[in-house]
Specification:
The protein is mostly helical. Helix content is 81%, strand content 0%.
């Protein structure tokens, strides 16, 4: 019974993440040229990701280490990509993104680990960790893009 229940939870987790990936992909593709809106759209997609955790009865507080990881990871990555793109076009954006991602994975991992250690009896789940990181990544990039728009940076 327990093995069957674990298999069902795994399948439900994978389906949830796949559906979110499809929704995120098509939504961001639809809004890609709406440069003034895309940051806000990413933030709304963050809310969708976190709302999907209700299906699994997962509290937002239990995925905070993953959200923090994603916010730092993609927030700095988006900033590095914007700077790299401004300096050297597409190649600069790619290099800025890749280098930024490598740096931020390490930095964000420190914060995620610290935050996880503060949660008594850390009971993170596969879907919680995956969706938490997705939500944090969307939120981090969304906030950077919104702020870039406020300071007059054009995408």
């Amino acid at each position: 019974y327990n093995e069957n229940m674990n298999r069902k939870k795994l399948i439900a987790s994978v389906l949830n993440v796949l559906v979110l990936c499809i929704v995120i992909f098509f939504t961001s593709t639809f809004f890609v040229y709406q440069t003034k809106l895309i940051g806000y759209i990413l933030i709304l997609l963050t809310v969708l990701c976190l709302a999907s955790l209700k299906l699994f009865k997962i509290k937002i507080s239990s995925v905070m280490p993953d959200v923090i990881f994603g916010v730092i990871d993609n927030g700095i990555l988006a900033l590095m990509a914007l700077i790299g793109g401004k300096i050297a076009g597409v190649a600069g954006a790619v290099i800025g993104g890749v280098v930024g991602n490598a740096i931020t994975d390490g930095i964000a991992g420190l914060f995620e680990g610290y935050w996880a250690e503060t949660i008594p009896e850390d009971k993170r789940t596969i879907v919680g960790s995956a969706v938490g990181k997705m939500a944090g990544c969307l939120l981090g990039a969304g906030v950077v893009l919104v702020l870039a728009g406020f300071i007059g940076y054009s995408l």
